[in-house]
Each structure stands twice: as structure tokens, then as C-alpha cells.
């Protein structure tokens, strides 16, 4: 909104009543230019109570009322259209600023926070059994059925990650030492150091979708993209066609460098790294000794790549969409980020079972202390009390296409700008995805 004043000393004589500010003008009118002349103002006698303000001469004030476009999320019809466009079943309406995390948490039933060691053991049995079955399938399947065996086994080993994930949040067992042991063991087949991941993941929960601070799927910064000409094509591939495996880069860059951790975390980080390196030093040679290099690829590498496909896909769907903003710390609101900025996504039932409902994700961000086996009950409660604010989807090609072809470079107004808008000459991978990816929801 802009206002130009012909003479800097021009002021009004106004009565003591509610003033009409320029912001009010913008609210009153959707657009246009307004000229307020001295002759058009109410004439006030000197006896009238008010504020006497000097003016040298009559002047013209020109107030330009800039239209304030309503957010597309404010209208139910617009949200429905955006949902259809992006592949969402529902796009939630904006959560009011006054709502706090405590307000939301207090609506959850107490039973969803209860730890049940029997249910925890059941989740371990599901993962161990399904993973063992997967290895058996790999051993017996003809070559043309190996992709199916790898898909099953990669999904099953993702269940190990979810168990370790619950242990890191102290929501798996009542025995906290047992949690750390199980969490460390569950991460070993993935070559994931448990404690380094736990420290970084805690930061993700504390600062979900906060610019610079969240540790998961930050948007690309245009300044950085423009400054690294030699790596621009790699970034385009990484946030485009290779994005379902970009968790590999996150795994390598964020969890093995001691300089990335605080001094009080170093000892626990070293213990986890020692466990991972011991598994590699003992487990990998044993696999190669028994099955050869090809066996190592068949039995370990391919399921590991399958795990990273789910790791990348789950995490980007959880918090990435054109209508979900990343915000600076001074604008960030915890309740909005966790409830409005997290996505519930339904997958085929066999994936949900093997991955222990990790994609019932909104209640997990309301409170990480909710065990995975209670997430569905917690989500039902959120639907009853906060349903109109939730972002919900069933996995579909349009949803994936939206993320892979739109959600690239940070933009304060639009949230994201695609690479083909920022650097069309280098965005061929994105153009290719737009052409070949299915568009049905």
C-alpha cells in the first residue's frame, strides 16, 4: 500500500473518533485510487474537541489502495480445486494463529500415549517375519520375479526403521535402556547410525518446515542455485527424477560427520558409528563369503535401495506440497506447522502394515510420544476435533508428479517455484517428468 503526500507538512484536523487509516481504505475497497481533498473533509469548528494540527495550504493526498488478494486456502471451493489439482483428498483450511500445540494435544485421549510392550513386540515380530520372508523370496525367485522380491524386502526393512524411530522418540517400550538397544539393532541392516539420526530428527520435530532449521527437505534457495553453476544440473536431477532416493545423500552427509554434533552428543554418536562400522566389517564380508558380490547386491543393496525409496517418498509427502509453506523463525507457528504443515497419506494396506502406520503422520507431529500402534486412534481423534484443518491424501501419481515437478525453489509468495521457471534451459529432467508421469489421482 502506498500513499503520496503533495506537501510533507500537510496534516488533518480530525475529531476524536475512530480514524480511517489507509489500511482501512484497502479493506473497504478492493482496488482503485482515491483522492482526498481538503474541501471534501468534514469542517470542524475550533470549539469541537479534537486535535488542532497545522497546515500551510490546501493539498491533495493520493491514497493508492492496493488490492489484497485473499489466500486461495481461505475459500472451501478454492481448496477443493487445489486438492484436485495437486492430488489431495482434502486441503485443510488455515489454522487460526491463536491455536497452540497445547490446545491440540489436550483434545487427544490419554490412552493414545500409553505404551504397550505386547504391541511393541508384535511390531518386531511383523518386521522380522516379513524381512525373513523377503530374503527367502530373493533366494528362490527366478530373475524376472526379483524386482517383486526386492520391493517386498525393501518395504519390510523399512519397518525396522520405524521400530528404531519409535525407540528414538521413547515411545516404544517402558524400558528405556531396551529402547536404545533395540533402536540401534533395528538400524544396523540399514547402515544407519541410531544416535546421530535421533539428534537430527529431534530438530526436525522441533522446527518442522522452518527455513534453515528443519533437517528434512528444505527447498532450494535461488541464490545458492544461481551460485553453483557446475552443480545446477545435479540439483535439478536430485529434486526431480532422483528425488525418491535423495535420502541416501541425507544419510551420508548428515550422520557421519562428528563436526555436525554438539560436544555433549559426541560420545553417543561415536558408539552408534562404531556399531554401524562393525556391522559393515562383519556382516558384509559374511554375505559376500556365502553368496558372492552378486549375492551382496541381491540380498543387501537392492532391499537397501528399496528402503531409501520409501524413506524419501514418505518424508517428502509428509511435508512437501505447493500450498504448505516453509517460514522464517520470526513468522513460524508451531501449531500451524505441525497440524497444517503435515500430510496424512494412505498407502496400500500391505505397506501400512509392514511400515507400522508411519504415514498416519499428523498425530506423530502433534506428539512424537504417541507409539506407532496408537497413531490411528489418535488420528481419528484429530479428525473429530480438528478435521477441517487437516491435509489428507491417498497415494497417487498426481500427488507425486506435483511434488517432483513443482516443489523446487523457495519463493516467499508462492512457497515454491519450479526449476523450469527459474532455469528453463537446464530443466529438461523436469520437462521430461511432466510429459511421462501419469496424471491420475
TrEMBL record:
Protein name: Omega-6 fatty acid desaturase, chloroplastic
Transmembrane helix listed as a keyword: yes
Predominant place of localization: membrane
Keywords: Membrane, Oxidoreductase, Transmembrane, Transmembrane helix
Transmembrane segments: 144-164, 269-287, 293-310
Gene source species: Datura stramonium
Domain of life: Eukaryota
Domain Fatty acid desaturase: 142-389
Family affiliation: Belongs to the fatty acid desaturase type 1 family.
Pfam families: FA_desaturase (PF00487)
Subcellular location: Membrane
Amino acid at each position: 500500500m502506498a500513499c503520496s503526500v503533495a506537501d510533507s507538512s500537510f496534516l488533518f484536523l480530525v475529531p476524536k473518533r475512530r480514524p480511517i487509516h489507509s489500511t482501512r481504505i484497502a479493506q473497504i475497497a478492493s482496488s482503485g485510487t482515491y483522492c482526498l481533498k481538503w474541501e471534501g473533509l468534514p469542517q470542524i469548528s475550533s470549539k469541537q474537541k479534537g486535535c488542532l494540527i497545522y497546515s500551510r495550504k490546501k493539498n491533495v493526498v493520493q491514497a493508492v489502495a492496493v488490492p489484497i488478494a485473499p489466500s486461495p486456502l481461505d475459500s472451501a471451493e478454492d481448496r477443493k480445486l487445489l486438492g484436485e489439482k495437486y492430488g489431495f483428498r482434502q486441503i485443510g483450511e488455515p489454522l487460526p494463529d491463536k491455536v497452540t500445540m497445547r490446545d491440540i494435544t489436550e483434545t487427544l485421549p490419554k490412552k493414545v500415549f500409553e505404551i504397550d510392550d505386547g504391541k511393541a513386540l508384535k511390531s518386531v515380530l511383523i518386521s522380522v517375519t516379513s524381512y525373513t520372508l523377503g530374503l527367502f523370496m530373493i533366494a528362490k525367485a527366478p530373475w524376472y520375479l526379483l524386482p517383486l522380491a526386492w520391493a517386498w524386502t525393501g518395504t519390510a526393512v523399512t519397518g525396522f526403521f520405524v521400530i528404531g524411530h519409535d525407540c528414538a522418540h521413547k515411545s516404544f517400550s517402558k524400558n528405556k535402556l531396551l529402547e536404545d538397544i533395540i533402536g540401534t539393532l533395528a538400524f544396523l541392516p540399514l547402515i544407519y547410525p541410531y544416535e546421530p539420526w535421533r539428534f537430527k530428527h529431534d530438530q526436525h520435530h522441533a522446527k518442522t518446515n522452518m527455513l534453515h532449521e528443519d533437517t528434512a527437505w528444505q527447498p532450494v534457495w535461488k541464490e545458492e542455485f544461481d551460485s553453483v553453476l557446475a552443480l545446477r544440473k545435479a540439483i535439478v536431477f536430485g529434486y526431480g527424477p532422483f528425488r525418491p532416493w535423495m535420502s541416501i545423500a541425507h544419510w551420508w552427509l548428515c550422520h557421519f560427520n562428528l563436526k555436525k554434533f554438539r560436544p555433549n552428543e559426541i560420545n553417543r554418536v561415536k558408539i552408534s558409528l562404531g556399531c554401524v562400522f562393525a556391522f559393515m566389517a562383519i556382516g558384509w564380508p559374511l554375505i559376500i563369503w556365502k553368496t558372492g558380490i552378486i549375492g551382496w547386491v541381491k540380498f543387501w543393496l537392492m532391499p537397501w535401495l528399496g528402503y531409501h525409496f520409501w524413506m524419501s517418498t514418505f518424508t517428502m509427502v509428509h511435508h512437501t506440497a505447493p500450498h504448505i509453506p516453509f517460514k522464517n523463525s520470526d513468522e513460524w507457528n508451531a501449531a500451524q506447522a505441525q497440524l497444517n504443515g503435515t500430510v496424512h497419506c494412505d498407502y496400500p494396506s500391505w505397506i501400512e502394515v509392514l511400515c507400522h502406520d508411519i504415514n498416519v503422520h499428523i498425530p506423530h507431529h502433534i506428539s512424537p510420544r504417541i507409539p506407532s500402534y496408537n497413531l490411528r486412534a489418535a488420528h481419528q481423534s484429530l479428525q473429530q476435533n480438528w478435521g477441517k484443518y487437516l491435509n489428507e491424501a491417498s497415494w497417487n501419481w498426481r500427488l507425486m508428479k506435483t511434488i517432483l515437478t513443482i516443489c523446487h525453489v523457495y519463493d516467499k509468495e508462492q512457497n515454491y517455484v519450479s526449476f523450469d521457471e527459474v532455469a528453463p534451459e537446464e530443466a529438461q529432467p523436469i520437462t521430461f517428468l511432466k510429459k511421462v508421469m501419469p496424471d491420475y489421482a
